[in-house]
Amino acid sequence: MHEFSTAVGVVDTVTDVAKKHHAIKINKIELVVGEFTMLNAEQLIFAFEIASEGTLAHGAEVVISEQKGQIECQECKYSGDIEKQSKDVDHFVVDMTNIFECPKCHSSKTKISGGRDIYINNIQVELPDEK
Ligand SMILES: [Zn+2]
User: Fold this and answer.
1) How many domains does the chain have?
2) Is residue 88 part of a domain?
3) Which of 27, 35, 39, 83 could form a disulfide with 103 if both were Cys (CB 3.0 to 4.6 A apart)?
């Protein structure tokens, strides 16, 4: 399950950061998920809840925002968003290479240049009371 291994990676990363800052709890995690990662936000949150069990990240609020997919055209050097209504291609099923048509010159020699990653944008932690 793609979401689960991703969630485990997120938990590992955020708990590392929290430990470095001597945090006692992680309150909120903001994730940016690329359109092409094929990750389902709801499933990711569900997987996160399981993966974070017994860690500092347990109970943290997870906020997910989507990053739009970006392509680069090899023919005309267009770089930017994919054409939304281009054909009825289900890009979550088809092979990930060369499936997007360039919106400018309609070449299919395009490369995905963004939206393939997931990253942690922000983490809010709770620090122990200083006494
Ligand atoms: Zn082009």
Assistant:
1) 2
2) yes
3) 83
pTM score over 0.90: no
**pLDDT tens readout for residues 51-101:** 999 999 999 999 999 998 899 999 999 999 886 544 444 444 444 544 788
Banded pLDDT at 37 (limits 50, 70, 90): confident
The rounded distance, in Å, linking the Cα atoms of 103 and 87 is 12
Ligand 1 centroid distance, CA of 82 (Å): 11
Determine how β-strand 61-67 pairs with β-strand 79-81: unpaired
In terms of residue numbers, what domain contains 83?
Answer: 69-114
In angstroms, the CA 30 to CA 10 distance is 10
Cα of 69 from ligand 1 centre, angstroms: 16
Contact predicate 110/74, CB 8 Å: yes
What is the whole-number distance in angstroms between the Cα of residue 71 and the centre of ligand 1? 10
CA atoms within 13 A on the CB side of 51: 22
* Cα 5 to middle of ligand 1, angstroms: 35
